[in-house]
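User: I've been going back and forth on whether these two constructs are worth ordering. Before I decide, could you fold them both?

Assistant: Sure. I'll take them in the order you sent them. The first construct and its structure tokens:
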Amino acid sequence: MSKLTRDDREALEYHERPGRPGKLEIRSTKPMNTQLDLSLAYSPGVAAPCRVIAEDPDATYQYTSRGNLVAVVTNGTAVLGLGAIGPEAAKPVMEGKAVLFKRFADIDVFDLEIRGGPETVIDVVTALEPTFGGINLEDIKAPDCFTIEAELRERLSIPVFHDDQHGTAIITGAAFLNAVEVAGKKMEEVRLVVSGAGAAAIACTELLYELGLDPKNVLMCDSRGVIHSEREITDPFKARFVRETDARTLADALVNADAFLGLSVGGLVSPDMVRAMAPNPIVFACANPDPEIDYPDAMAARDDGIMATGRSDYPNQVNNVLGFPYIFRGALDVQATCVNQEMKIAAVRALADLAREPVPASVSRAYNDRNFTFGRDYLIPTPFDPRVLQWLAPAVARAAMDSGVAKRPIEDWEAYGVQLESMMDPGRGLLRRIMDKAKQDPKRIVFPEGNSPRVIKAAHVLKREGIAVPILLGLEEEVQQAAENAGVDLDGIDIVYPPRDPRIGAYMETYLSLNQRRGATAARAQSDLSRRSSFGMMMVREGDADGIVVGATRPYAEAIGPALRLIGSEGRACGVYMVLTRDHTLFFADTTAHIDPDAEALADITHKVVHLVRNFDIEPRVAMLSFANFGAVRHEDSKKMARATELVAAQDPTLMIEGEIQVDMAVDINLARSRFPWTRLTKTANTFIFPNLAAANISYKMLHQLGGASIFGPILLGMHKPVNILALNSDSADIVNLSAYTVVRAQAQSDPANPSR
């Protein structure tokens, strides 16, 4: 094995932890808690669907998971840029593909890594057809991929889709359509040069023909140059692109060309080649990870250029995740027998049309409030645009129905839209949006526990990914030694040792002025500021850092004291956890600060939490929780929740809030409205205010430990400056996540036009 880099080791650790290797697991969708559950799930109850399916095999879509199950299939012959590394080595990639299917379209996946050539792959997949609703072919070398796909399409009555071909083609086609329009050109007149003659390049080019491109205006180049009539071409797939031309090299071909499509290798195109192209040149340099020409070089060569790449750090990313999850979603939902040309074209047009629509504020905020307006720098939607599912899946489903390949047509399109919307809860991409937002303007975040291995690992990630500018507090020798032991490089990360820092004198003066009537003395000030937590708070207060994350090695109660004393709060500070379940993003408060708040404190906490939720572009639906509903039990605990509800509702009449209310009524809206038809809750609550710290703390921890929910936080609200205090058991990933939010909070605070988060 070649020598592993730190990044390699980090990736290996990610795939290995936390005790369950890989990225996938299988979970039951039905209860299995009682003897009755067992009798229904297995013997004797399972015989009933078996008998029905025996009479009608299509009933598998009604009584099993088949209708939401896709096989991601490879033989490992063309994996990423690694080549023919084998089926075992391809498995991490296939698991990754499965994760994307689930994340973006709620589709379940079995990954199938098959040892063998085309015949073996065809036979295995054919034999497994009864298991799946669709087949996604992946990372199979050309020309084998063409043979496999064609044969499987003939043999199977379920969708077969080779994403390297058709997924790339669909995204490219959508962006290209819009680029041609922006450039003021006509599709039928566009002169296109293609670099690459593999599966993706061929599929893209042929789909562009369907969109109006004239084949005679296309020159394709492989590693030997232009595919022209005087060359001996034995590959039948390449032979379709032979042209009569004097051009021999890529440079020759690009002279006066209107467009370039690169699906080859990085660095093939020079600025001079771009300068030789026609006015308003369209340059799609889509080789990964390095494009045929870097975006800055191409744009410097031609300020009238329109460019797309496969990279996320430049405009117009051609990313297959914009296609395959949603295409399969639409195909599965109508039980399509294939993915035909009509369905592909529908996906292209839906993506292209969506790019012309106004972009939601939530998407803009994730990209540093970038103004996404249809044009040169915005040809296709961004990968995390939540609208893609609602546009592509129905378009594909309609096309399947219109072309006669849908076995289960959709009758109620409005209900289908609601179904799709429920799949993609607004909070599912929340963590990614936070991370993307932070990267737009990284802020200085100080970490008092600078010698903690977890903090050091997090700081390394924050610096490397451009999420934050970390500052570690601690004795440099100790911090560096801890970093070495953890296998982490701290190059470019500042390490500050408070007792020796020249700012301590100025900090002491501020400290004494803040605490002169609280018994503070110079000796006490010096002693306190020699502690890393207090020093870090003063760094933030005095503007030498933009935010602070503390608490990795000390209890919450100890960590919050210096924050309240040296930074201070606006009213009551409170803690919020985001609880991320499979289907929902929930907000729990107060989880950290107030042991037994009164009604007024609860009202203040609720206002702060509602503000937070709204800033995440989520409609807050608030449940003021108790052990009783609406005065059923007259107890001080229930009465204070009712009083807090009245206070909040009076100040925010438009807010959907109810209380006091039991948690089952808050999460089962049908039950609530059957018992209390006058309730102000019209949808399931997503924001839960607890009567005391014990209830809140116990609830989120039980959901996390026993219910499998992910948690984000605690987010500390109400402080004058961005302060967040970690849970004591936070791992490095938790620290990275909370630090990213701290950056976003600092960004908002530095811009008076933005609301504080």
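The second construct, handled the same way:
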Amino acid sequence: MSTPTPSTEPSIASRMGIMRLWRRLVGTADATSANASAEPLDKRQWQKIDALLQEATSRADSDTRVRARARRLLDAYQKANAQDRLAFMLRLAQGFHIDEAALEVAIAHWQQAARSGNAADKLHAQTRLAQTLESPRMHILRQFNLLPAGIEALVRMRAELLSLREHQQALQPLESDLLRLLTLWFDAGFLELQRIGWSSPASWDDLRNRLDSDRRCYAFFHGRMPEEPLIFVEVALVQSLASSVQALLDEAQPTNDPTQATTAIFYSISNAQPGLRGVSMGEFLIKRVVEQLTHEFPKLQTFATLSPVPGFGQWLRTQLADAAYVQQLPAIAQRALADHATAAPTDTSTDAAAPATTADTAYERLQTLLATHEASAHPREEEVALKQWLMGECAHYLLMQKRKQEPLDAVARFHFGNGASLQQINWMGDSSAKGLRQSLGLMVNYLYRLDAIDEQYHAYARQGLLAHSSEVKKLLAANPIRREG
């Protein structure tokens, strides 16, 4: 796209460092030092660390001593090699649990106070119970908040912890406490929304394209991590719903006048901090950005996403393992699959992995069909049938395939949980190799109707109702696949 005019808004690009911003936007993180060359901690050093951890469980100490101790513990962790950092986390995870005997006493005290009916006694007992329910581990972790870089250090610690999959069970107590603390510390009320602008020339077309005058990129920041974006959302200001991510990001397209835009398309939401996985921020980010855009561009009437369907491909693979299902497919799909999509074997001596392999082969053949498919190469009836099947199955997957009352698809859960509705399913919305592999090229639009968000959110939260358009309802009805029940 054409070079944007310089933004009049304060740009944070220079403050962050343009290469760091570039890495964030294109989906790669800065490499962090693993201290591979650090010498292993010796017995005396571990004894000192253990002593500091025990001292940190005390609830009666001066702020000066608490800060100094937290600083020493954090230095020991950050300067250690990977093996010693793991040992440090295991010490926290496997020790410093809630005192069960003290908890039983606190519960009994609460029950006695509740029976007495005395309000002061109940309040005192409730406070005592709450304090007892906080593990010494949680008390230790809270002390890092007193250090200027303490919160960021805990975010990094949790990111490393989550990467150690083979140790997840042993580290689970620490992970749970970290998630609980970070959820409190990164509450939406503590986050600052900033627009990321482009105020200097560059030769990186993709970065420029993402920050062009008809594009907006917003991020949440935290006061204790002022140069570290937490989560990004990228927005295109256009005239109608976008149905193709390739067309939306086509650099050859002319830049639109954002003041004339009627539609805002949220086409990328990216968590920039692995250590904050599971901390809810995205829904607040979208709503804050909608408020900002509405104020800046009064002509905007439609707010929607162009979203992937990351779970559709894997779900469809399970369907293709069923011979009865394959028999219902359109002729064009059956020809492509030939005899490679079969049901699970009835011979119990057959390798149990065979059905999955067969389904994977069938799915790969569908990818090939769509990657090389040209509409003119087949009768129109077959083209229509292929679309009806895949788009109908996508609608079925998003709206009917649930775990309890929540959609199986993670992106769908996110947007329905924010009060959005499923507006449109787009054929070849992402024609890249990744798009074909993930969802056979399908993408969807979730619509955020400002006058319906609250009603749709409550309908979803209370009853599991998934709002969707009449167009999507027609796709469900036209789906050639028939299921029992």
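Notes on the second construct follow. The first helix runs from residue 13 to 16. The first strand starts at residue 191 and ends at 195.
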